[in-house]
Each structure stands twice: as structure tokens, then as C-alpha cells.
Task: structure prediction
Amino acid sequence: MSEMEKLRKHFDSAEGQVADGVPFVHSVPSAISEHQHVEEELREAKESLANFFEHAVLGMYRSSIDGQPLMLNPALCKMAGYASFEAVVQEYQQRPKEDLEINPTYSRERFRREINENGHVVGLESPWTKPNGEVVMLRECAWVVRDAAGAPKYYEGIFEDITERKRMEKALLESQQQYEDLAATIRVGTYILRSKSDGARAFEYVSPRMATILGSSPESLLQDVQSVNRIIHPEDLDSFLVANQQSFQQHGPFNWHGRAIVAGTLRWLHFESTPKLLPDGEILWHGFVVDITEGKILEAEKAALLAQNHQLKKSESLGRMASSIAHHFNNKLQAVLGNLELINALPKGADPARFLAMAKKGAEKAAEVSRSMLIYLGQTTLKREPCRLADCCKDALPLLQQALPSSLTLEMNFPTQSPIVEANAEQLQQLLTNLLSNAGEAMEDRQGTVRLTLRACSANEIATAHRFPYAWQPDQPSYACLEVADSGGGMAEADLDKIFDPFFSTKFVGRGLGLAVVLGIVQAHGGAITVTSRLGHGSAFRVYFPVVVEAVSDLPENNHSELQPEAAVSGGTLMLIDDDPMVLESTKVMVEMLGFNVLTALDGVAALQVFRQHQAAIRLVITDLTMPRLDGWSTLAALRQLEPNLPVILASGHDKAHALEGAHAEQPQAFLSKPYGIEQLREALRQVIVGE
Result:
């Protein structure tokens, strides 16, 4: 039996009870008074029913068939906005006879229809206007009480105040509508995905925008979550699935972007979602998807413009470099050719030594330009050892002071505990010399001070503005900062990105390779350099070297190995290989001057033929690296197949580290860096012969 039926039974079984002056039931059967125990039970039932009626939270009523209120409990009086049942009766009695409705906003049309057809009304929702004008929403359930003959006697019913519920439902609907309107208008598609404990996944919500982005409909996506996989580009599908699976397994965020084929068109999509673990073990993923195709196109266009701009700058730099190299080499060659011409013009018996020395010096200067260019290109990887940076600077102090004009003072500020870096002392000295020379030129013979400062710093202290190389990023926690600052005229902002280009100068074109060499040395040491400058306020160059992480308590002293006794390098036959006839001829003469018989070949193929003819006589081989038909490495390998223990010297215009890089089955006994003189040649031959 339902609670409603129980309540009706109570209403029908009691009569004449008054609760707080309110008539409760009409009469009590006279037969009950004959039995005392029945009277007690009836009394208890009446009290229970009265208490229930009085204190119930729901509103309860009884009314006549024509709508006159017969009983209202306090809860219903309060809902209707009246202080008591009497106030309700008074309000009803004041209305015209033809108006039996106690409240104009409360419609009885559905009530009458349903109660006439069914004998009851369930869930009738209607607005109710209180006397103070406040409108509330009430939900009513009512039924007909009939007499013994089946004729309607009165109505009974229950009211529930659903105003707050309706307000919340309205707010929820409005919020949902606002969300759906927003989801339909923004460019981001949103979704809710449920992952069940058995691994099954399905969308619970898909915004219209998301369906549009994926070229589908919300209904299709709700029915088939796998349809997303089918639009992912085949080349990107693996990464999508891996990212998806990792996210589900780890209950972590999902973040992926890649290509998709949407309606036959290539698109770029970005997915993101965040998981929410539910008590039952299932997971809700709230996520979004964005079409980033336009952004990718803009990125590509930007990259193309940057590449084009870089190429233009590179072409400008290469043009300046080519012009300046030609200028420098022509100057040096003028010194060589001019002095050689003077030798030809000397009278018989005159000493040509002075002019030969100047010609040699001009050639050496030209070689310096080549070496500087190799340093700038990072092709001079010399051996680096741990060293205290302050000690390296102090050791080079005499040479550093020579790099400055006498009008300038060098001021040094070094910490007590010097940072330890892995460096090549010779290149550090060249770097400092070039930076101080640049500072001296910036001071333009004025009185002043150039400051050399050394300190330790963290990676995040290194500025990114005007930092070179451009692509450099710190990969160590600590760095040593070596700063050279001057109070000269400074540089314009537009020039700061060009100053490390070879031969660039703010004074005139073709100045030199000083700062370009500095950048090359910095790159070779895995560091970076920054520059700050303002016109009229001087410049500051800061070089950053990675600090050696391991503590170095005692650095090894320079251990000079005992000199080997001078070995005779003369005697025997030597084969010389070079594709340049002039180099071949001049080197042949130098080797002959050192006491060797010389066989020559213009490339590796010819050299193998010569070697097969004179294999028994040939003591060692000097071969060039870059040659047509068969280069130096291939020639070396072929010769070693014929004679496994054959000593070979490799010669090249490249730096040694660059020339010998890579994996090669056969290695030379020595290396000659072009251009070389007779002393360098003698030392290489001695090194090979001593090792025999």
C-alpha cells in the first residue's frame, strides 16, 4: 500500500477530530464507543494522524467538490502565503460566488479533466501567487473521496513547493544552452569521453564544432568513437595511438597534434584532454580539438620568410667575405710576387735574402687568413684540457697588454676561486687577444680603461638578445663568464647581428677576421658569446664557457716528455702524391733537400702504378687528401693492401681535426697542414722515421 493510500485511509477512518481548532474529520462511528480497547486504538490513531498532519513538510488539504477549503495543514498555509487556515477561509469567502478559484494563477482545467477521467491527479505543476505578490511553483497530487454509494464527497491532496527545483532546472537549462551556444560558435570543438573499467570507450558529448572539424556529425561520433582514428593521416596514426594509449594507461593528460584527412583535405589538428577518475573506476575525459591548419600555414610562411631573409643575409655576408678574402690574398700575393720580381731584377752577385724573407712573410700572412677562416668555420678542433680560466688569462697577460695601445689601461677582476673549464690555452689566448684588440680600436687612441672580468654564473643568467651562435642553448647548469668591456663609441643596434661576420666592420669593409675567429673559438668550446652596446656608451662582450662539473683539486702540471734524439731523416726513396703540379714540384725539391730520392704521382690511381713498379724501394709516402679519381683515404687504404706496414703522411689544406674526422680503417703516421715549410716537413718525416 502506497503512502498516499495510507494517508487516504487515515483520512477516511477518523471523524470529528480537531487539530488546533481545525475540523479534521466529520464523525466517528458510534459503534466504536462500545469497546474500550477500540477507543484507545482510535485515540492513538487520531493523535498520530493529527501529528502527521500538523508537522508534515508537504502541504495537505481537503476541499469540497466545488473547491471550498475544508482542511489545510500549516505547511500548505505557509506555501500559499497565509498565516493560518482561517485566513485562507476568509480569503475564499470574500471572493464573488461565481469565482470559486481561490487563486487566479492556479488553473483547474487539467485538474478537473484528469480527476473526472481518472479519479485522481498526479504531478500537476502550476504557479501560485501569494498575497504579497511572490509567485511560487507548486506540484499537486489529488484524489476523489466517495461515499458508500460511490458519489464524490470531497477532494484530498498533497502539495509540494518546487520553486527552488524549478529555478535550478531553469538555471541548468540556461547554462546548458549557453554552453551549447558557445560550443557552436567558438573555433574549439569540445567533447566528453567515458572510459569504462573493461576498456570500452565512447563519447558522451560532442559539440557541433568538433563534429564539423572532424568532418562528421555529433550523432555519428557518439555512435562510433573509432571514427576519429580513421581520419588521422596514416603517417601520424602510430604517434596518435601511442599518445592515446599512454594517456589511458597512466590516467594522465592527452596532448597530441598532427595531420588528418578531413573530407579529402589535409588538415592539422590539435587534441587535448584531462582525465577525471570516478569512484566506480571509470574515467571521464574532458577535452577539446582545434583545427590549427591556418597556424601551420602561417608558421610555414614565416619559416620561409625567415629562411629567405637568412639567405639574403648569408648572400650579403658571403659576398663581403669573398670580396675581402680576395682583397687580403691579393695584398699578400702582391708582397710575394713583388719581392720575387725584385729578386729577378737584382744585379749579379746581390744578396736576395731580404726579398726572399719578405716574400715568405707575405705567404705566411696569406696562410694565416686561411687558418682564421677555418677557425671561424669550426674546423680547428684542438685538444682541450681542464684549466683554471683565471690562470690562463694571467699567463697570457704580457701578450694581452701588447694588444692594447699604450693610452689604455687593462683592468682585471678575477675571483678567488677561478672557474675550471675544458679549453685549449692557445685558442683562449687568441680569443682574448682579438677581443682586446677590438676594444682598443673602439677606444680610437683615447685615454681609458678596458676591463677584463671573470665570474661564474648560472645558465638562466645568460642573455638571449644578441647571443651567438643563434641556435645555441645552454645545456649545463653552470658557466664561466669572461667579459671584455670598453668605454668607446659603441655600435648601432642594426650592426650587432653582423659584427661576427667575417670581414665585417663598422669602420670600413674588409677590416679583418678578429671577431669571426672569436666566434669560431667559442663554438669549438661549446660556448656562446653575447654583446651589448650603445652609441656613445661603449660595448661589452661576454663569453660563456661550460664549467667542468667534477671538482678538480689538483690540475696536472705540464709534463714535457723527454726530447727524442735527433734522427736522421735522409736516405731511401719517398713517393710524393699531389694533384697540384706546382705543389708537387716544390715539395719534391724540399724532400730532395732533406736527402731523399723522390718518385711523384698526380693522383691516387697513378700512385698505385708507381708503387707497384718500385714497391721494394719506396720507404714511405706523402699523399694529399683531396684528389680526383682516388682521394687520399682511398689511396692510403689501397697502398696498405699492397704493403700493410707502409708509413704514410697525410697532407691537407684542412685543419687536422677536420681532415682526420670520420671512421677510416687505415690511419696515417703523421699529418701535414698546408701550407708547410721545410721545417714542418722535416719534423713530420722525423716523427715517422723514429716510429719505424
The longest strand covers residues 265-277.
